[in-house]
Design brief:
The complex is a heterodimer of chains A (120) and B (105).
Chain A (H helix, E strand, L loop, with lengths): L2 E5 L2 E3 L5 E8 L8 E6 L5 E7 L6 E3 L7 E6 L4 E6 L8 E8 L7 E4 L3 E5 L2
Parallel strand pairs in A: 2-11
Antiparallel strand pairs in A: 1-3, 3-8, 4-5, 4-9, 5-6, 7-8, 9-10, 9-11
Chain B lengths: L3 E4 L2 E3 L6 E7 L7 E6 L6 E5 L3 E2 L7 E6 L2 E6 L9 E6 L5 E2 L3 E4 L1
Parallel strand pairs in B: 2-11
Antiparallel strand pairs in B: 1-3, 3-8, 4-5, 4-9, 5-6, 7-8, 9-10, 9-11
Classes of the chains: A mainly beta (120), B mainly beta (105).
């Protein structure tokens, strides 16, 4: 079945960097736009970034522009999020998710998430 | 940014009862609205997209309605597995989510 599995989360100091990965199975990741969405502990959902199927275009929420970079390797059925200059407020569970057909910006399915903690 | 609001924040319903959740957008989003269910320590699950289209495998007791700025998710005859937090999300512009409605017993 269609599945997404994230990895790469962990504890990082403010100002540090982390790279998240998401591997898809049960479908051809290269056929879909893909996204990262985060959820701070006990809080709601916040869209972070999405990338077109070819990787030619990427979009970000304002709070991460210039610090985060989304990328993909369709040959490896993989999605990435490079996070630099991390701040305490970036601490969250990060979910990868597939966008709807044609890049429609609803999300299905979601991975199980990976936790990023930013603390000194 | 389009701001999404949801009401009520918490809804207490008995098993077998009916739940009506509201979602409002700060400006018109046509029918570009999705609903998700999230249980503790789980990822969100898509229930509804395009305001009223059920996602694959979603039971018929879940229904969505509305357009423009006012939307409703109705859960008929609540089952034990339906007690969760429900989020609406608009995709008329950059995606934004509502703060959620917790459906509890």
């Amino acid at each position: 079945q269609v599945q997404l599995v994230e990895s790469g989360g962990g504890l990082v100091k403010p100002g540090g960097s982390l790279r998240l990965s998401c591997v898809g199975s049960g479908f051809t990741l290269g056929d879909y736009f893909m996204s990262w969405i985060r959820q701070a502990p006990g809080k709601g959902l916040e869209w972070v970034s999405y990338i077109t199927s070819s990787g030619s275009s990427a979009f970000y929420t304002d709070s991460v522009k210039g610090r985060f970079t989304i990328s993909r390797d369709n040959a490896k059925n993989s999605l990435y999020l490079q996070m630099n200059s991390l701040r305490a407020e970036d601490g969250a569970v990060y979910f990868c998710a597939r966008l709807g057909p044609g890049g429609t910006r609803w999300f299905h399915p979601w991975g199980q998430g990976t936790l990023v903690t930013v603390s000194s | 940014e389009i701001v999404m609001t949801q009401s009520p924040a918490t809804l207490s319903v008995s098993p077998g009862g009916r739940a009506t959740l509201s979602c409002r957008a700060s400006q018109s989003i046509s029918s570009n609205l999705a609903w998700y269910q999230q249980k503790p320590d789980q990822a969100p699950r898509l229930l509804i997209y395009d305001a009223s289209t059920r996602a694959t495998g979603i039971p018929a007791r879940f229904s969505g309605s509305g357009s423009g700025t006012e939307f409703t998710l109705t859960i008929g005859s609540l089952q034990s597995e339906d007690f969760a937090v429900y989020y609406c999300q608009q995709y008329n512009n950059w995606p934004t989510f509502g703060p959620g409605t917790k459906v509890e017993i």
